[in-house]
Amino acid sequence: MDGGIEALRSQLREAVEECSARGLVFSTKWAAEQLCNLPPPGTAAADSLEIDTEEGGMQVGAIKSTPTLKHRLRGAGRAPQTNDATESDTALDDKHRAWQQLDADERDRVALGKSLFDVREFERAAFMLTGCHGPRAVFLRLYSLYLNSERRASEAGESKISNSSAVAEISAELLALDAAGDLDGFGVYLLALALKASGRRDEARDACVRAVQAFECNWSAWELLAGLAGTQAATVCPTLGWVRHAFLAQALVATEAASVEFDNHMAALERLVGRSGFVMGLRAQRHYHMREFEEAGSEFAALQAMDPFRLELSDVHSNILYVTEDRGRLAALAQRCAAVDRFRPETCCVIGNYYSLRREHDKAAGYFRRAAQLDSACLAAWVLLGHELIELKNTAGAADAYRRATDIDARDYRAWYGLGKTYEMLNMPHYALRYYGRASALRPHDSRMWCALADCYDRAAQPDSAIACYRRALHASPESAAHAAARLARLYAAAGDRPRAAHCYRLLLAHAAADAADDVAAACLFLASFELDRDNPRAARQYLSQVADAAPHRAEEASAMLRALASSSN
Fold first, then answer.
1. By mean pLDDT, which of 47-51, 161-165, 520-524 is the weakest?
2. Residues 495, 488: Cα–Cα separation, whole Å
3. Distance in angstroms (rounded) separating the CA atoms of residues 41 and 45
4. How far is 281 from 162, CA to CA, in rounded Å?
5. Among residues 307, 412, 535, 549, which one has the fewest Cβ atoms lying within 10 Å of its Cβ?
6. What angle is formed at CA 107 by the lines to CA 102 and CA 113, rounded to 5 degrees?
């Protein structure tokens, strides 16, 4: 044990200081939130916390001493190479002292550059830091140039900055510093950002791994790694340290088949930082993705009670209220968010969902566009904008919005599903099949994905593939079971397989909703005919008697069959 809860407290305090000094505001906020949720020093909870013990089969991970510049150099993976461990440590000490001296010598220039950075004068900040060589100054200068490139691209209406000459220059300078061993963990994180912007995703992912190994509490680096790793998050995740539990829990939050793994990582997190806002948000998102809307709503209510001015994840909360059609609570949430900050992307998404529920799709699309303008990396804004443009029959705009969403996070099934729906509307089934396939791969236990894929195969005259997908839908979640059973029965009947068709129609009657009257009537008529062929008139009468209640417009057809049945029995 290297220091228990106090080592964790020191690690988070340094993270707040170091991230704040570099303008990494989201990492700063994340670390400060976890820090303030630790047990107070000297309490029984703090004294009893054993961070490196086994918990629920998970190694929580020892908290090492405060990660100094020396540790960040070692972790970045470009430490001076020597033939002896002692010589290597000496070289690291020398580098550490040199960096400390440079930061001390340049602290006034860094303070000026940081003040300009804070007021978003990025080019001026970079200019003022020209000629500085300390790790903080180099990071601030190049990060200012990177953010300025993003801003220029956004002003020009471009979705990417990969063609920016500034990004190419940033990448080249960082790669040269990395090769010389002159980047700490924060510099390697910035290198990963630049490599991703240049389209070099594999190199960016490797750099991200080095960055989080070098400085564990840079949450921005973990989030970047999540986007680069996709579904391979568990494979690329470093095996040491406690923040990996937060990373893996977030990576698994939408994965249906990973309940045990998610709960284990959450238990490890709660053991360390309790029910912080971040942890509660993960719980709420898990319930949302599992379509447990009541439990998710309870978590969001608790989160709001704990932090009434918090806007993070408000868009997810509004999605739940939208799906459950709770217009009153959605209106109240929209008013609360607008009162806190009308110009946050989350607020715009909440208001957009409110107008969408009222079927005012033009207004809703306007708010989602505003959210995307406020934060071009806001995944929810692009996905929801795509949904609204589908409602407005603007398929070209919808496809563009969904593609922007997949660029931000290729793990989001909603964007792939939306692209499939868009191309299905355009009568381009082969493209739709590709995108529905991506969605079903991400949500293999969601019957809606399999039904969409099967419907597309059906329209493309591929009945065997359609049958296989409908069968998967029947064994997945229950939301679309009735739809899958009805379509599967029709396909079996068309193929002449009446026993299987009858089995599927019985499943339909077991799962049918009130709005499926036509399907219920068709099922009853088919089953009546099937039972008559089996010389079972009593069962046939029972099925025919249900037709008039389910679909009055088909009652005459059922009556004719009943009359024929009566005359034959006479």
1. 47-51
2. 11
3. 9
4. 33
5. 535
6. 115
